[in-house]
Design goal:
This protein has helices spanning about 115-135, 150-160, 165-175, 180-195, 220-230, 245-255, 355-360, 365-370, 395-400; strands at about 15-20, 50, 55-60, 200-210, 230-235, 275-285, 295-300, 310-325, 330-335, 340-350, 375-385, 385-395, 425-435, 440-455, 470-475, 480-485. By secondary structure, the protein is of the alpha+beta class. Among the domains are: about 15-30 and about 295-385, Alpha-1-antitrypsin, domain 1 (Roll); about 115-285 and about 390-455, Antithrombin, Chain I, domain 2. A hairpin with a 3-residue loop joins strand 13 and strand 14 (about 440-455). The longest helix is centred in the N-terminal third of the chain and has 25 residues, at about 115-135. The protein is globular and about 65 Å long. The relative contact order is 0.15.
């Protein structure tokens, strides 16, 4: 047990490890967000990009980069005309001297107010999707690691080309109801820009689209994925040794520091595969305060079903952000990485064998409450040094989460990707790995959304008459049955 100023020892079950990007903007309370939606561009064509001192920015609402000069160094002046007053009172085309978001002499912060609002909504969608995906994947899996961000990114890129009921189902499953289609992608663009500047940790995210040669991809789909998701486009290399999956796997490996090397198995890409949309993510961060290797020792780990195994248990006594949940009957400890922006959170049941009860009570509300109630406490933390890997198809999980039409050859609608072919998602493949040590954490993941062409000669329905049956001979013109019988293989 833990007291407000005492210590507790984690020696039983490491329940749930959440490697979280603790973006200040994403974790702000809803009250801090601007009331009302900001009018965005009329369609994705009004999105523009500019480089400002090495940091990429997004222009929305039809504003060009130059159009934002009106604010000068002052706070405001959002439109080029300069007729609006700056919030600090200094207005006009040239801007004032006040502090703020204008271009002027000062450098702009990572997000504008509208982008912060959108990314806040996106973080809510990500959290909702993460918990639902976790709840679905944990079934019959004693150990699990996956990247909600990677899966969500790849599917949102795919959603760019979804239409009608297919799009609506993806919106619900991805938690994007509070973000209209354009806003969801603008939010991801802003988030991608922010994640490209991770501070003292290594964080690489990359997107790619591989397609069938000569597939007539809609230009808007291609342009928006390039501009908003920095996606690279390439074609299947059917001449590649060991199959067209090899170049894709090679790209994924290069993006994940060779942590994910075989995302697509040989035979994944067939003549009826139109496209594979891929996201890759790699993270490496050192703890803000490292564990001393001399403190690591072999200890007993009590598995969920009662058996025990030896593990290398790390130990550190220090001030950690800690919370105790009466509702979940669980401890929560935050382990920050060096820059303070990213943290790992460990949720540990109070008693052995209670992980299922904690998972049953874990939802978006309880998770947010846990994070808001973290306070500095003296903690004696025992945490296993471990490595965990997972690889699975997400097709069934996503269908169970409400995405049935996107996987249907007859109901899927992805005309935003290609209008001359009927497309559907044939599979979503995910692979992830994490390694936790005294130094810190290294994790990588990749997601491949495999999009197929609807077959004009579908797989045959097997009818195997290896048991008794009825048969008859009929004249179709006169509709007269000439013979009728039943067959039972009588010797």
């Amino acid at each position: 047990m833990a007291s407000s100023c005492g210590s507790f020892t984690v020696v039983c079950v490491v329940a749930l490890v959440l490697v979280a990007a603790s973006l200040a903007l994403a974790n702000r309370n809803h009250d801090a967000r601007a009331a009302g939606d900001v009018a965005l561009a009329r369609g994705m064509r009004n999105l523009d990009w500019e480089n400002r001192r090495g940091n990429e920015r997004i222009a929305v609402d039809g504003e060009t980069p130059a159009g934002r000069r009106g604010g000068g160094a002052g706070n405001g002046g959002r439109r080029r005309g300069g007729n609006r007053r700056n919030n600090n009172g200094a207005g006009g085309r040239r801007g004032g001297r006040g502090r703020g978001r204008g271009r002027g002499r000062g450098q702009r912060p990572p997000f504008s107010r509208r982008e912060m609002n959108l990314v806040g909504r996106l973080s809510d969608a990500n959290a909702q999707f993460s918990l639902q995906m976790y709840s679905t994947l944990k079934q019959d899996r004693p150990e699990l690691i996956f990247s909600p961000h990677s899966i969500h990114t790849a599917l949102t890129m795919t959603y760019m080309g979804a239409r009608d009921r297919t799009a609506r189902q993806m919106v619900r499953t991805l938690g994007l109801r509070r973000l209209k289609k354009q806003k969801a992608h603008v939010a991801y663009a802003a988030l991608t820009t922010s994640l490209a500047q991770p501070g003292n940790v290594t964080l690489n995210t990359a997107n790619a689209v591989y397609s069938k040669p000569q597939l007539p991809i809609e230009e808007a789909f291609r342009t928006n994925l390039v501009n908003l998701y920095k996606a690279k486009f390439d074609v299947f290399d059917y001449e590649a040794e060991n199959g067209p999956e090899v170049p894709i796997n090679r790209w994924v490996a290069s993006m994940t520091q060779d942590k994910v090397t075989d995302l697509l198995e040989r035979g994944t890409i067939t003549p009826l595969t139109a496209m594979v949309i891929v996201n890759a993510i790699y993270f490496k961060g050192n703890w803000k305060e490292k564990f001393e290797p001399d403190e690591t020792s072999e200890q007993t780990f009590y598995q969920e079903r009662g058996s025990t195994v030896p593990v290398q248990m790390m130990k550190r006594t220090a001030n950690f952000n800690y919370s105790h949940s009466q509702a979940l009957q669980a401890h929560v400890v935050e382990l920050p990485y060096q820059d303070g922006r990213f943290s790992m959170y460990v949720i540990l049941p109070e008693t052995r064998g209670a992980l299922n009860q904690v998972e049953a009570g874990l939802n978006l509300e309880t998770l947010n409450h846990l994070l808001l109630t973290l306070r500095s406490n003296r903690v004696e933390l025992h945490l296993p040094r471990f490595k965990s890997e997972s690889k699975f198809s997400l097709k069934e999980a996503l269908q169970n989460m409400g995405m049935s039409d996107p996987f249907s050859q007859t109901r899927a609608s992805f005309s935003g990707i290609c209008t001359s072919h009927d497309l559907f998602i044939s599979d979503v493949i995910h692979q992830a790995v994490v390694e936790v040590s005294e130094e810190g954490t290294e994790a990588a993941a990749a997601t491949g959304v495999v999009i197929g062409l609807r077959s004009f000669a579908p797989n045959p329905i097997e009818v195997k008459a290896d048991h008794p049956f009825i048969y008859g001979i009929r004249d179709k013109l006169s509709k007269v049955w000439l013979f009728m019988g039943r067959y039972n293989a009588r010797q």
